[in-house]
Amino acid sequence: MKNETRIDLDRRTFLKGGSFASLMMLMGGVPILAGDPEPPAETPADGTTDYKGEATPVNLAVVGCGPWARELLKTLALIPHGPVVALCDPYPSALRRAGDLAPKAQKYDDFQKVLADPAVQAVIVATPSHLHRDIAIPALKAGKHVYCEAPMATTLEDAVAIAKAARENPKVHFQVGLQDRADRQIYSLANFMRSGVLGKPLKARQQFHKKQSWRLPSPNAEREKAINWRLDRSLSTGLVGELGIHAIDIATWYFNARPIAVTGFGSLIQWKDGRDVPDSVHLLFEYPGGVVLHYEATLGNSFEAEMGVFYGTDCAIMMRDRRAWMFKEADAPLLGWEVYARKDAFYKESGLVLGAGNTKQETQSKKGTVADAQVDEKSQLQYAFEAFLKNADTIQSGVKDFTENFDASDVPALREYLAGLQKEKTWLACPGWAEGLESAATVIQANQAVLDNKRLVLDPAAFALA
User: Fold this and answer.
1) Rounded to an integer, what distance in angstroms lies between the CA atom of residue 146 and that of residue 124?
2) What pLDDT is stored for residue 36 in this prediction?
3) Which residues, 6 or more positions from 378, have their beta carbon under 8 angstroms from its beta carbon?
4) Between the N and C ends of the chain, which has fewer C-beta atoms within 10 Å?
5) 8 Å CB contact between 208 and 400
6) Distance CA 325, CA 80 (A)
7) What mean pLDDT comes out for the span 31-60?
């Protein structure tokens, strides 16, 4: 997501503490306890996203230098093996502001110059979503690794085209910006919920509430129109695509199933300033087996902010501000570890604090009590970029090794070799073209349901390549 909304939530609300976090502190709540767990089973024993000199630096170009790109640059400044060597934007002031955050980077006003720069090994696509295709596909064909912000595209045609280009260029790494999947806490919860702790999954609800116009100011009328593309339904996937894609993707990931239908409706109530994108939306996603997800978002009210709850026959799990709690049913089976877990009061309920490495009380034996675990200082975006850089390095090293030892023209063998390397060395969840296509196809169709105020059976053909 490339907007000031996500910046506001990820930086100010989390780092400084929002109203909900303050309330939970008064009620005895604590931050999530992202301890120091062992790597997941599918990760090598020495897998880590902390740079210790073992990774080869991958030179980056950031294309699109708006507000979100500047947030990306602040995060990249924390990662020594991801130097930004180039910036690109046709708008001079945007390029200048981004240059203040990457003073050593070469500045370009033409993307073709980025492709021609031999120092650039990877491209971060931070342009408006409807322009992703114009950047991602040429970069892939030029042999550059690509990190493409989500949604991958705003039309099914563009999403399929990007996915095909990523599939057809196996010598480079493609990753879509579903950064929540790389977060240690969210990844841990995925494994936890897939273990069956919910019992029978029943439903989930996700919400985003933030009173703000979503409009960016500019003294130049033409520029003002360009930077507010999200308010134009011909260019934007609206609230469900630019905000909801992350929450909806997490639900689909946790349920391990794709929605089969969606009912949506939206309204424009608060911000009647010439936009034609609804400022409030409601969607009901139907999953196999009768499981449903209710997603709703509004730009007219901030109460309860951003949160998600997953409900099952044995418990409910609430996620908020990178924290999580489990609320067990009285007849749920005893898991064993929960008798030792930290419990927080929520009005008439008592929730067990969940954190990466704490659902089986690993930290109980390491640090005495769960409350002694340290809060995870890394952002989801930092995790995502570290994963991207590590996998880009893995791919380019693998291509070199394969070329030196095997027939470089044997593309099927190269694909198999690189797939094996990725499966062995990938850190956490690094969504590629398949996940990017699935998430984009979901929100593109869901946004259409909102605009048409109807139930839409999702087209299975939209989620796969021929």
Assistant:
1) 6
2) 32
3) 49, 184
4) C
5) no
6) 34
7) 48
Q: Is 91 exposed, middle or buried (0-12, 13-18, 19+ CB in 10 A)?
A: middle
DSSP E strands, 94-242 = 106-108, 122-125, 145-149, 174-177, 201-209
3-state helix vs strand vs coil in the chain, percent to 5: 45, 20, 40
CA separation (Å) from 104 to 88, 107, 108, 122?
A: 13, 9, 13, 16
Q: How many residues does the chain have?
A: 466
Instruction: Measure the CA–CA gap between 209 and 306, rounded to whole angstroms.
Output: 6
Contacts of 162 (CB under 8 A, 6+ apart): 132, 133, 136, 137, 148, 152, 153, 433, 436, 437
Residue 306 CA: distances (Å) to CA of 49, 211, 276: 27, 12, 24
User: What number of helices (H) and strands (E) belong to the chain?
Assistant: 15, 16
CATH class of 60-179+380-432: alpha beta
* DSSP-derived secondary structure letter, 125: E
Given a contact cutoff of 8 angstroms between Cβ atoms, the answer to whether 150 and 435 are in contact is: no
At the fourth CATH level, the homologous superfamily of domain 21-39+182-372 is Dihydrodipicolinate Reductase; domain 2 (3.30.360.10)
> Which stretches within 406-432 are classed as H helix?
411-425
Give the range among 211-225, 329-343, 387-401 with minimum mean pLDDT. Answer: 329-343
Domain spans, the chain? 21-39+182-372, 60-179+380-432
Q: How confident is the model at residue 35 (pLDDT cuts 50, 70, 90)?
A: very low
Hey, which residues does 315 pair with through a beta bridge? Answer: 328
Distance (Å) of CA 64 to CA 48, 98, 247: 30, 9, 24
User: What tens digit of pLDDT does each residue of 170-185 get?
Assistant: 999 999 999 998 888 8
DSSP class of residue 205? Answer: E
Q: In 3D, which of 241, 240, 220, 224 has the Cα closest to residue 275?
A: 224
